[in-house]
Input
Amino acid sequence: MGFFLRADAPGLCPGAIGRLSDAFLSGSAASGRINCTRLALLVKLEGRAFGQTGCPERQAVPLLNAWPAKRAAVGSHTPQASHKNEIGYRDKDEHTAVPPVESPDGSEGGLPELDETLWSSLGMKVVILAGGLGSRLAEETSIRPKPLVEVGGMPILWHIMSIYAHHGLNDFIICAGYKGYMIKEYFVNLVLHHNDITVDLASNSINYHGGKRPNWRVTVVDTGMYSMTGGRIARIRDHLTPGEPFCVTYGDGVGDIDIAAEVAFHRSHGLKATMCAVTPPGRYGATNIEGQYITSFIEKPRGDGQRINGGFFVLDPSVVDLIPSDDTIWEAGPLEWLAANNQLAAFKHDGFWQPMDTLRERNHLEELWNSGKAPWKLWA
Output
């Protein structure tokens, strides 16, 4: 069956067709085929749709030797056992879910490992706020910046970046501030610290053994010691890809969030900003009391149904214009303006989410990691 990428899909951003077709037609020259699952995910990130052969009224780019990939609704995502193999997508025209179809080798269409070339063509950056003092975690942050506090022997920053990289986003901008030089040193020495090496002193060379190196591009920007969250975002304006949305999150929170589905959701609604809306984890047991009797007890229930800011934003670059100075708090002026003007969408996440604001929360994450069942560990 032949498939076409619809070039007239509503709201398709300029250049999307070219980026998608160039990436896959050039990639197919070496492999001899186009992986339609990868295309589905890229189309999802562009927020657009597939169209089958037989639509002469539509300008299209033919996709040869391809096989259909699974599509499902996006906008609200509850992780299931199989969620890592789902392509979240809603056809804006037809609102029709297409069932999974097997590939030529008999496997179901899922999310493959994506290479850097395909994703770099989309130009989406991931901005991580990593410059605060972390005063509520002073036991750790007196000697290192909070994003370098370790969980399972790796900085929480590494865990956050691994979540994004699992979904194919690997171009990072780190907004450094307090002890930012340590973040720079961490990435400069990342490969050194996680590989065996041979040092040849005579030739002043180092050979690395093991090949453990993330396929990441990392830009560390000094955004000021005392800048507020909004000010840090404004300071990295020149590092963003013009005209492309970008991701923003805090350098101290993790979750099993479907980043790719959130990006697709953001592109579909056309607003300036998307925020991941989460239910906060409970801290205390709850009781129901009738008279003098406790009729039920629930150990640490999840909030009271109210959702909060969970970070993991997707933003249009125009939001930077809402930030006048280093003193601007992102969560105050800009976010409040976006909400008041109906420019802020909620991507509801009902799965795992946990900040690391205190030593207690850091220890909780450590216990989950050591159990081998860390919910945010989506990568292999």
Remarks:
- Residues 16-31 form the longest helix (16 residues).
- Confidence is low (pLDDT under 50) at residues 1-121.
- Residues 21 and 61 are 7 Å apart (CA to CA).
- The chain is about 25% helix and 20% strand.
